[in-house]
Amino acid sequence: MDTEAAARAFHIRIDRELTHPQVLRLLDEHLAGMRAASPPECVFALDLDGLRRPEITFLTAWRRPADAPPGAKTEEVGELVAMGALKELTPTTATEGGHGELKSMRTSARHLRQGAAQAILTELLNLARQRGYARVSLETGSTPPFDAAIAMYRRFGFVECGPFADYREDPFSRFFSIDWQ
């Protein structure tokens, strides 16, 4: 699925409260997956409080059923398929582009390989461009469960880089970035 078609297939919105039961379940699934794939000292996933911090913009992608009543909110009748966040590391100034970090990228296990991750990533990168970021970076795992995500990041133009922000080299982490300036 191309990125534009993927983005149209889902209702993507900013979630500031992070209280919907489906969001809480997907976040639990995400954190459990991170803990299962890496030792505790190498898990950098944000918990609920971390995702509510002011420097974080959290997005959710929902699939609306075809038989949904007109006017019904997608979050009330739909199914959460994916989530992701953009963290501001360095703000954009008049003379320099900022630096953002992708966090908490996760697709529900029931919706893998349906374009949801592409849709969330597309929206997060559009948001980063709107904010004038010159660079977007991410940390991900190095074990086989992360291979599909790494392949997707590469398709979007991310290249491997060294640790950034407060990260350090470790055998369970890989670092990627995309630069626009």
Characterization of this structure:
The structure is a single chain. With 181 residues, this protein is an alpha+beta fold. The protein has one domain: 3-Layer(aba) Sandwich (Aminopeptidase). The chain has six helices and seven strands, in the order αβααβαββαβαββ. The chain has helices at residues 3-8, 21-37, 48-51, 74-77, 116-130, 147-155; strands at residues 11-14, 56-63, 79-90, 98-107, 133-141, 159-161, 173-179. The protein has a seven-stranded mixed sheet, sandwiched between helices. Helix 5 (116-130) links the parallel strand 4 and strand 5.
Outline the fold blueprint.
Elements: H1 3-8, E1 11-14, H2 21-37, H3 48-51, E2 56-63, H4 74-77, E3 79-90, E4 98-107, H5 116-130, E5 133-141, H6 147-155, E6 159-161, E7 173-179
Parallel strand pairs: 4-5
Antiparallel strand pairs: 1-2, 2-3, 3-4, 5-7, 6-7
Keyword list:
181 residues, Aminopeptidase, seven-stranded mixed beta sheet, alpha+beta, 29% strand
Q: Name the CATH superfamily classification.
A: Gcn5-related N-acetyltransferase (GNAT)
Number of β-strand runs: 7
Tally the helices: 6
Outline the biggest β-sheet: 7 strands, mixed
Strand neighbour order, sheet with most strands: 1-2-3-4-5-7-6
Spans where pLDDT lies below 50 across 5 or more residues: none
The gyration radius over C-alpha positions equals 16 Å
* Domain count: 1
CATH topology: Aminopeptidase
Enzyme class: transferase
GO molecular function, one term: acyltransferase activity, transferring groups other than amino-acyl groups
Organism: Hydrogenophaga pseudoflava
Protein name: Putative N-acetyltransferase YsnE
